[in-house]
Amino acid sequence: MGHTTIDDGADLHTGVTAVVPRPPRPLPAAVHTGNGYGKLVGSTQVDELGVLESPIVLTGTLSVFRAADAVLTYLMRAHPRGLSFNPLVGETNDGFLSDIRRRPITERHVLDALEGASGGLPAEGCVGAGTGTTALGFKAGIGTSSRQVEAGMPVTVGALVQANFGGVLTVRGVPMPVEELVPGAARVRPPGNSCVIVLATDAPLDARQLGRLARRAIFAMGRVGASYAHGSGDYAIAFSTATQRPVLPDAALDPVFAAVMDAVEEALLNSLFMATTTTGVHGHTSHAVPYDRLLAG
User: Fold this and answer.
1) Which CATH class for the 10-296 domain?
2) 214 with 198: CB under 8 angstroms?
3) How many Cα atoms sit within 13 Å of 246 on the Cβ side?
4) Which pLDDT belongs to residue 45?
5) Quick check: 234 and 165 in contact, CB under 8 A?
6) Pairing mode, if any, of strands 193-201 and 233-240?
7) Active-site residues: which are they?
8) Where in the chain are the domains?
9) Does a cis peptide bond (omega within 30 degrees of 0) precede residue 249?
10) Cβ atoms < 10 Å from Cβ of 267
11) Residues 76-115: pLDDT tens digits?
């Protein structure tokens, strides 16, 4: 994973996050749309062919097409004889905190995220494509989590989220509205916007089965209080890094489904808990979740 963060302390709070699966590619993959008010460039070919042939890049809404062009540059350099490529680029609208009409993302920003991607513990919160996002009334950002389960073989599921959606924060089934946790918070609230979820697993699964995982990822948003609003672009992308075949039988997938739900829920909460209060364009402020009041509640 790699991030490029743009934060001028004033009107620009945006960036790029890149998920770069190790070769070989293409990999089995699927996309599920929870609510389709968004721009997920390249998704129809993934639906049609059931494979992922590029890194996954996330950014802000009005930068998604420039980012896709930058991914194309990256792929053309890597494959000098290639004649067709399918960049997969998602977005959420960070316009509550960032002046998105300035479209600050350049090709270099995207290439830096792609070329700087590495393993290890990822940065979370106000970084990369999560720099200017808000969710459930609070400052949010990038969140990650993973689970390991036994499904006839050891299976790992990893989740990354770009959280920017509406609803009421819910932790362990208890609603915790921003009005209660941050008394006196500004009445100007961020709109309901979107969420992009990326799932990676080492389980040998085909595209159909990965679609089932992607659907569970969208379901997991409900655990933290998502409203699935009219203007929300909620997408889940799932891919498998496994090289062995045959695929797992469907009857073995229940533990994997549970792992997806748990990992996505925790990633969404991490996107909130790792974020910091941010003031941006038009003086809009998005408050971080106050741990002390949350624990006291």
Assistant:
1) alpha beta
2) no
3) 3
4) 98
5) yes
6) parallel
7) 194, 232, 234
8) 10-296
9) no
10) 26
11) 999 999 999 999 999 999 999 999 999 999 999 999 999 9
